[in-house]
Inverse folding.
């Protein structure tokens, strides 16, 4: 009876299978091929999307550089226009404007004392002086306007080796 049941169970199990093991293997191979094709399509579309992204990023950077250049050109044009307007106004109304230079006075002491160098730097003085238009046009920023020679009197009486230097540190035209 046991044998009969076992045989009957085997017969039922083999007859109940719809496909043979070889058919199942073939079906799985076909599914693998389809999945690989789908994967290849997705990899290809991802590569295309990345290429599009890089292209659009490059185009956006190019466009931004164009915008930046045009903004700079506009700012330069506006600055030039303001300058021309100011120059025109200065020619029409020269009494409304004041030409100002800033002088910087600096003492240089020839010594090995760090304290003297610090003192000289702290004692630097700057002040504004209104000047006439001709002098304003002749001078330039950084120009030394005195003869920075050794102070002979200080050297003889104090043993101090120092030089005063007066330079133009800034130029500007202001409205009165």
């Amino acid at each position: 009876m046991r044998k009969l049941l076992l045989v009957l169970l085997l017969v039922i199990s083999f007859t109940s299978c719809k496909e043979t093991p070889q058919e199942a293997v073939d079906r799985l191979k076909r599914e693998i091929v389809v999945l690989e094709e789908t994967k290849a399509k997705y990899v290809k579309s991802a590569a295309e999307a990345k290429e599009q992204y890089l292209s659009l990023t490059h185009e956006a950077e190019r466009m931004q550089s164009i915008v930046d250049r045009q903004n700079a050109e506009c700012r330069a044009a506006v600055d030039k226009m303001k300058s021309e307007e100011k120059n025109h106004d200065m020619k029409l109304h020269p009494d409304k404007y004041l030409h100002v230079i800033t002088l910087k006075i600096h003492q240089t002491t020839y010594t090995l004392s760090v304290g003297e160098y610090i003192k000289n730097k702290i004692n630097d003085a700057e002040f504004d002086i209104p000047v006439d238009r001709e002098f304003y046009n002749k001078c330039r920023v950084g120009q030394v306007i005195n003869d920075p020679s050794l102070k002979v009197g200080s050297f003889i009486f104090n043993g101090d080796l120092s030089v005063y230097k007066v330079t133009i540190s800034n130029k500007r035209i202001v409205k009165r």
In short: The chain is about 60% helix and 20% strand. Residues 21-92 form one domain. The first strand starts at residue 97 and ends at 109. The chain has a mean pLDDT of 84.
